[in-house]
Each structure stands twice: as structure tokens, then as C-alpha cells.
Amino acid sequence: MGPVPPRTRRRGLPAKAARSARKLGEIRRAQLITTYGVGAMIAVENESFLIRGLDSWDISEAPFISEPRLAWQLGVSGFRMPPAPDADSARDGVRAVRFPEMYSCPHCHQLQPFRRFNSPPGRAECSSCQESLVPSRFVIACTHGHLDDFPYWKWVHRGNRTGTGSCGGQLTFEADGSTASLRAVLIGCSCGVEKVSMEGAFRRQALRDLGIRCGGRRPWLKDVPVDACQEPPRTLQRGSSSVWFPVMHSALSIPPWSQGIAKLVAPLYADLKEEDAASIKAYVRIRKLLLHHPKYTDEDVVAEVERRREAETSAVRRGDDAEAANRAGDYRRKLYESEYRSLSKPHPEDSEEEQEFVCEPPAAPVDILRSSYGLTQVMLVKRLREVRVLQSFRRVEEPSPADSDRRQAAISPEKPSWLPAFEVSGEGVFIRLDPERLRNWEAQPEQIARATLIRENHERLLSAHAGDSDKPVPPSPATPRFLLLHALAHILINEWSLDGGYPAASLRERLYSDEDMAGVLIYTATSDSAGSLGGVVAQGEPDRLAVSLRAALHRAGWCSNDPLCMESQASGADSLNMAACHACLLLPETSCENNNILLDRAALIGTPEDPSTGFFSQALHD
């Protein structure tokens, strides 16, 4: 798909080759959710663009994705995959706008808005030098999501301004390459002012000291007024990850929504939701929808459409509720509870239906895992489907559960009734811990004390993110149980990446930690790069899992950064870890649903002072 309108032909290619060549600016659907979503910048050759809002998307080419439980949580009617029109006729689909607007010429060093270069159509070249232009390396953004060009004129004229207007001179941009620091990047002006380097532009107070305030611009949304914003802007590199943090949600498709009549109606619901019962029955008969599903009737289809219609109405009503955001945590907990219940019960494969969720116990007993490691249940998830949704995005600072509503950057001028999403098919292994043994372990004073240190740091951070918002600050999930489950998931992912041949980035964790939940699901995070060929499921067989778990625990018993790592009382970003570092527990960011925080290796194996305090200490020393 091409979010950036490309040239029809590339120079130097014959017409036939040009038609078969990959178009410029083409990206995958999943990247429009995870990497180049609404409000993100994308570099295309020597140009830079900003992905436009949902209001500009052509959803006639956007397939509908059904995941009712997640739709209820987010207060929308459903989800759509990013559009991917036919390559020969694609002109719209997902649109983009040029950003940043400031460009420079590496030959004549002019720095000015792109339109003033008078580039030839479809090309980004300086009309004087015929050199390819370079988009501005620097932008400014605030924590409320606003984005703007770096104020070069104000920066170079600091201390030399006699008024608020422009001097009328021509700005220049030079990078002599003498050093890799910002001191080598010089901004000048033809009015005669002394050239100024970009050194110091990234200081937190740099723009405020110049009287530069946030302009409230949202260039990814068309024809929207600027926001009144009091947040101080920050200078960022155009390619920095701090420019765009996606706020994503996900859900596993579980029965009854993933099978039977619900699965049959899901792709048709968009066409049937406005029809009455008679029209739905006629549609079913004309399309012969039940020809290969004799156990269902047209009345079943009508009932399912009605059930979804009621759920959609309820979701939209909840989305308009001012307290919906305050209940989001409760919805997420209920969503996870329903997944936990489904993962705990067998859902065998049915040869008569195409299923999206198949979960079965291993053929061999799990007695050795129960007695030695305290695992009371193992389930082989041979087939699963996950839906991942982009709800919003943040800038400058990473998303936090305590973020105020003002930090939720809009992806559409009005509240959307749908959100962009994509689906992943894969496999996994679900593990449950023995609840009685777990309760005895988590009551130990040593575990409570270590978890309390992390929780207090986390709650201080959540309170800081909440600011003066009226939204209640969510409690930190940092409990001994959560730290144990999280560390267990990480060591198994690291071990399986070595033993099973899967790259760690292709595996993903899902933690179920509550008073009534104590489980971990490890599953394939991508279906294209690593596939779902049974490799992960094979790791869940009791004999192999026992070997993998023992090897993982032995590996966790010593870190190359010990004793500093194990003896640390606060590590990681904002001191939200204890015994955890890149050499032992941390994973690629695609694998951890908690951004590599709330981890403690001592929960698994104990501490050097008291090795017996770890949940698996006995198994490790048997």
C-alpha cells in the first residue's frame, strides 16, 4: 500500500520494469498500526511525510475485523484493517502530508519551506542546484501530542531580535561533519547575524528560555483549529522514537466469539447490521451462506446479527460516557479473565468447523512439573488469533496507564466509531502455577518487601503522569505474584529462543495475574516471520518443558553483571526493576507487554543472602 503518492516511473527503468517495480512509499498493513500509524513520520527516499488521520482514509478498501470484547472495552463499533487498494489504481487508501515543512539543500545550504524550492513535480530537488533536498532533522513536540517545525529563525536570532517579525534574510543550514555532535550543525542567516550551532537545543528549558511556546498544531489532521496548549515544547530528532509512541490494545479471539455462528456472521455483519429480519433471511438464502453449515438456520443468523447490534449500541453509548476512561482498567481485567477461563479449559479441534482457537492439554501427565516446579496446568494452544488495535499515540514520553485525557493524541478530528487494527494467527503454551504453593510463597516478608519497593516507585511515576487530571490513578500491578509471573515469562522466552530456534522478538508474553489468576501465555507474536508450525507448542510437552525450565532457571541463577545486578535495589528506567538487566531478563520490546519494567530475578531463584526465598529455589537445588 502506498501512503505517499509515488511517481509512476523511476528514472532509469524501462516502462515495463517500472510497472512491475515496488512502488515508493509502500509499507505493510501491520506497520500502519505498530510503526507508521496516524501521526507518525515516514521517510521515503529523501522526503519525509506524516500519516494523516482516519478521516482521510478510504475505508471502502478496508476489511472489517470483528472482536466484540475489545470493541466494548474501547467504546467503538468495530475495527478495520488499513486499506490496501489494488496497486494499479491506488491513489488514496491511506494519505500522508509532507512534514516537516522545512528542507535544506546540501549544496547551496538554503534552509526554507519545501514549496519555496520550486522543485519539479514529483521530485524533491533544489531548482537552483538540482541537488536532492534534505528534510529538517529537527522538530518540536509536546507531551500533549502537538507537533511543529523547529523554529530555526528564532533560534539563530536569539539575542539579536528587535521585534517579533522576520528579518527578511535567507536561513542556511550547514553540517561540516567535523564532529558527530550538534556543535557541527550550524544555522545562519543572510542578514549578517552570527551563525549559531544546534548545541543546547535539546535541553529541557532551551525553547522556554527563548519564549517559544507550543503552537498546538496537529498537522496530521486536516482543517482542525490549533489547540490552546500550555505544555512546554521539546526539541526532538525527526527519526527519534520519542516522536511517536503507539497506544495499542489487543485481545485473543476466544469462544464463543471465535467459532460457530459468531464466526460465520462476523465478516457479513457490516452488510447486515442495518437490515431487518426478512432482508437478512433473504440474503442468507440468495448467498447460500448455510449450504456447508447445515446445523444453523437463517433464524440463527438473525439472532446473531441482533446480538451484535445490541453490543455495538452499548459500546457506542459507553464510549460517549464521560466515565468510560475511568472504567477502562475494569474492562481490561474482565477481558483477561475471560481469556484465562478459556485457556484453562480444553477446546479441542473440531473437524467440522474452521476454528480460530484450539487449546488442548498435553498427552503426557504434568506430574513432574507439579511436584518439582509448582506448575499445576499446561495447555497447548495449537491455534489462536490475536487482534491488535491502535487507539491513540503519545509524543515525548512513553504511554502510561495514568495518562490524562489531554495526552491522548487524536487520530481523527471527531471521535471515531472504528479503529485501525490487524490480526495475527499463531500458537502458544499456557502455564498455570499451583495456587496454594503460590499463596504461601507470596506471603513471605522478603517477597512483600521487594515488591513494595517497586510498587512505590511505580505509583510515584503514575501519579506524576496523571498530573492534575481528575482521572483516578490506577494502582500498580507490582505484587510478588506479578513479578514472579513476569520473570518466568521472560526466562522461558529467552530459553525457547535458544532451544526452539525462534527469535526472541517473534515470541510474546501475556500475563494473567490477579487474586484468582496466576498464569502465563507465551505465543508467537508474528505469523509471517516465524510462522506457526508447531515449534512453540512442542515446547509445552511436559518432558521438554521440564528440561527447558530447569535450563532457564540455571541460566537465571547467574548474570554477567552480578553481583551488581542481583544486589540492585532499583534498576532500569525510573527504578521500576530490581534484579533485571539486558544480560539476564530484558527482552525485545515487541515481546514484553510491560515495556521491560516490573521485573525481579530474585522472585525465581532467591537472593545470595537467602537462596531459599525464590519460588523455584527448591527445584533448582534438587
| Parts with pLDDT < 50 across at least 5 consecutive residues | 1-22, 319-327
Shape estimate: globular
Strand content: 15-25%
Tell me the major beta sheet.
8 strands, mixed
Mean pLDDT across residues: 85
Radius of gyration from the alpha-carbon trace, in angstroms: 27 Å
Number of helices: 19
Number of strands: 20
- Report the structural category: alpha+beta
Q: Helix fraction?
A: 25-40%
In whole angstroms, how far apart are the ends?
A: 56 Å
Description:
- The protein is 28% helix and 18% strand.
- The N and C termini lie far apart (56 Å).
- The chain has 19 helices and 20 strands.
- It is globular, with a radius of gyration of 27 Å.
- Helix 3 runs parallel beside helix 9, helix 8 packs across helix 9 (298-320) and helix 14 crosses helix 16.
- Residues 1-22 and 319-327 have low confidence and may be disordered.
- The strands form four sheets. Strands 3, 4, 15, 16, 17, 18, 19 and 20 form an eight-stranded mixed beta sheet that branches. It has a six-stranded antiparallel beta sheet with strand order 8-6-7-11-12-13. A three-stranded antiparallel beta sheet has the order 1-2-5, with no helix packed on it.
- It has 622 residues and is an alpha+beta fold.
Question: Would you spell out the secondary-structure blueprint of this structure?
Answer:
Blueprint: H1 15-20, H2 31-34, E1 41-44, E2 47-51, E3 64-65, H3 68-74, E4 78-80, E5 96-98, E6 102-104, E7 110-113, E8 134-135, E9 138-141, E10 147-149, H4 152-156, E11 171-175, E12 185-189, E13 196-197, H5 206-209, E14 234-237, E15 245-252, H6 260-265, H7 269-272, H8 277-287, H9 298-320, H10 328-344, E16 358-360, H11 367-373, E17 375-394, E18 418-433, H12 435-442, H13 445-466, H14 480-499, E19 507-514, E20 517-524, H15 535-539, H16 542-556, H17 564-567, H18 602-605, H19 617-621
Parallel strand pairs: 4-18
Antiparallel strand pairs: 1-2, 2-5, 3-4, 6-7, 6-8, 7-11, 9-10, 9-14, 11-12, 12-13, 15-17, 16-17, 17-18, 18-20, 19-20
Helix pairs in contact: 3-9, 3-10, 8-9, 14-16
